[in-house]
Every structure is written in C-alpha cells, then in structure tokens.
C-alpha cells in the first residue's frame, strides 16, 4: 500500500464450492469500499460469479507462476485471497506460492469439512502451498485440521459465507412458493417430491481421494429402483427431480431412464434456477456428499445421504451431526427412505434438529474483518 491509496486485494477461485463461499465476501468488500478488489475466476467460478453484482476477470488457462507474480506486482497486491480447488490447474496454489515469494500476505477460505491437507499440498501431505491464514467453518473443523498437522495459530473461525442467507431463505419460504415449485414439477396433491442433489463421483477429488466404493450412476439407479418399490407398496406417486452439480453436464446423465419406460417413478432432470431455493418444497432431499445436503439440513429439510458400499470415511458432516441420515448398505435403502418419506414423527424430529443447528453468524463480515486486519486497516 502506497501513500494514501487503499489496499489492493487479489481474489482467485476456480471450483464451485470455493466460488460460492468467496462471492459474498467479495460483495461485502466491494460495498464497503475499504479495499480495492480484483477478482479472477476460472472453471466453474466464472459461471457462478455471473450471478453476483461484482465485476471479475477470467484467468487464462495458460497462467503460470511467473505470470502470476507479474500480475500481483502490476496490481500492487497487498493481500491474496483465495478459495480452495481440486482440479488440474489449481491456480489458487500458484497465487499462494507467488505471494510468498513476493512477501505478500495470503488468506484462504475453506468451504468443506474434509481432506484438508490435499487442498494445500502438491502431494498427499506436504502442505507446500500453505497460506498465512486459513478461514475455516467452525470448531469441529479446527480440531480436525489440528489433528491433521495444521498450526492452530494459522486457523481463524469465520463460518461459511455461502450459508449466510440460509436463515432468511428458510424463514421467507411460503406455502404459496412451495405449491408453485411442486406444481412446476408436475406434482399433484398427495404426490411425494424427492430432490436428488448430484455430484461427480470418482477417486481423486478432495472429498474422495480414494475409490469411494460407489458410483453416481449406481447410486441413482438404486434410488430409482427403491422409489419404484415404495411407490408400488404404498400407492403414493413419486416425482424424482435430479439436480446436476455445477461440475456436471447433461451428458453425464444420458444413460438414465428419463422417458419413464421401465420405471414407476417420474424422473425429471432439472437445471433451471438455484437448487437451494427449491429444496424446502421437497418431501425428501437426497444425495451423496455434496455441500447442498448441508444447506438442505440448515433449511429444515428431511435429508438422506446415499453412499452404498462406502469404502472409507464418510466426509459429510451433517451425517456426523445427526441432521441427515446416512445409508451405507443397499438393503437399507428402501426401509430408510420409506421411513423418511412417510413417518412424520421421524421427519419432524430431523427437521427440528436441523433447524437448531443453522448458523446464525455473519460469516462474510467475519472474513472481511480478517482481510481488513491482514491489510492493516483494523
């Protein structure tokens, strides 16, 4: 920072989880006007940030550590602020490394509760891309990271900024809105609406560094078969809405029976609108380990995590907290789903527990305060 100029903050994101977490912070920084903000996006972050009111630049695929260092110098960066990503480019790590070489402070914002070392390592646990400070979700995260070898002095609890508006969304969701969403999916009175929150499933991701023991296609087919069975035995018609993850394309689902041939359940592949805004209309929200299941819990939904044949540790924190129900075995799918769909006592108990856990802290404000502190403003 020179003379009377305000500090310059360079922001970088690629993967959707980090982009969704960082976006409310950028919006806060822009509105406060206490720092100059230069956001750079690549991969899915570009599409996600288009939904926000702040300008950003696309980061070229040929970005290198050398061009990163030059960019930071040209912008007079006083702080590098990044999300975390796991892809073949991982530009966040380049910016952390370049910032270290230029003696520029760096801050990373964590967005999920698992495999922390991979996010900051070239190999499994070398932590060679460790920023000066990591903003994390909660005390639970802190304890896990300390056990993984992180210095507690580098960790600051801020909450998850992507969750900041969940409380207002939950409280403003009306019966009229619910009816509108259900009608839009072709649900009639008495029908059951199930929303499946999809995600890519393969070894080599932060949440699933090893073979998870199941596949996306296998999970969806087991779900459809189970819903068909429940529909036949209960006489209740079921509509299954599949919501692709930002890292998925329509082509990823082309082998599924969307023409209803051979299935009793009506199946809809839906990409319009924001998933979180339709979740409260569902009788059941189900997925594997996507963060959207955490959001569904905080919105007071009945939530299940379908991971049949799971081979390692379950990364979904809502399962550990008891506000979503994990299903690890094929033979348990039908009885558990039938209970979650039709047993109002069980459903009510889950919803009550979920709503008691919804974050009430203003996470974006806390991250912004951390940025202002690292920039010397506070």
How would you describe the overall organization of this protein?
The chain is of the alpha/beta class and 378 residues long. It folds into two domains: 171 residues, 3-Layer(aba) Sandwich (Rossmann fold), CATH 3.40.50.2000; 191 residues, 3-Layer(aba) Sandwich (Rossmann fold). 37% of the residues lie in helices and 15% in strands. It is built from 13 helices and 13 strands. Strands 3-2-1-4-5-6-7 form a seven-stranded parallel beta sheet, with helices on both faces. A six-stranded parallel beta sheet has the order 10-9-8-11-12-13, with helices on both faces. Helix 1 links the parallel strand 1 and strand 2. Helix 1 crosses helix 13 and helix 8 crosses helix 11.
């Amino acid at each position: 920072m020179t003379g009377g100029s305000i500090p310059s903050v360079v922001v970088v994101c690629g993967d959707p989880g980090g982009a969704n977490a960082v976006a409310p912070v950028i919006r806060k920084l822009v509105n406060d006007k206490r720092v100059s903000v230069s956001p750079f996006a690549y991969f899915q972050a570009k599409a996600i940030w288009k939904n926000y009111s702040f300008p950003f630049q696309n980061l070229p695929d040929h970005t290198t550590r050398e061009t990163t260092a030059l960019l930071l110098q040209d912008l007079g960066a006083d702080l590098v602020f990044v999300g975390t990503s796991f892809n073949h480019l991982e530009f966040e790590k380049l910016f952390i490394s370049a910032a270290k070489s230029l003696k520029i402070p760096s801050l990373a914002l964590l967005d999920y509760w698992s495999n922390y070392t991979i996010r900051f390592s070239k190999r499994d646990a070398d932590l060679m891309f460790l920023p000066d400070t990591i903003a994390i979700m909660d005390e639970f995260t802190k304890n896990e990271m300390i056990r993984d070898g992180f210095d507690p002095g580098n960790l600051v609890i801020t909450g998850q900024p992507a969750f900041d508006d969940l409380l207002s969304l939950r409280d403003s969701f009306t019966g009229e809105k619910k009816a509108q969403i259900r009608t839009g999916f072709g649900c009639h009175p008495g029908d059951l609406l199930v929303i499946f929150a999809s995600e890519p499933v393969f070894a080599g991701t932060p949440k699933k560094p090893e073979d998870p023991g199941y596949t996306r296609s296998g999970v969806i087919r087991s779900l459809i078969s189970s819903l068909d069975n429940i529909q036949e035995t209960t006489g209740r018609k079921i509509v299954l809405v599949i919501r692709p993850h930002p890292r998925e394309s329509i082509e990823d689902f082309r082998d599924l029976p969307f023409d209803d041939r051979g299935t009793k359940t009506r199946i809809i592949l839906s990409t319009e609108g924001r998933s979180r805004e339709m979740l409260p209309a569902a009788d059941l929200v189900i997925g594997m380990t996507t963060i959207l299941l955490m959001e569904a819990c905080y919105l007071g939904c009945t939530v299940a995590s379908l991971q049949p044949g799971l081979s390692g540790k379950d990364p979904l924190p809502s399962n550990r907290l008891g506000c979503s129900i994990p299903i690890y075995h094929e033979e348990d799918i039908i009885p558990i789903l039938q209970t979650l769909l039709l047993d109002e006592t069980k459903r009510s108990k889950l919803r009550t527990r979920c709503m008691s856990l919804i974050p009430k802290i203003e996470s974006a404000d806390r991250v912004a305060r951390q940025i202002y502190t690292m920039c010397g403003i506070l």
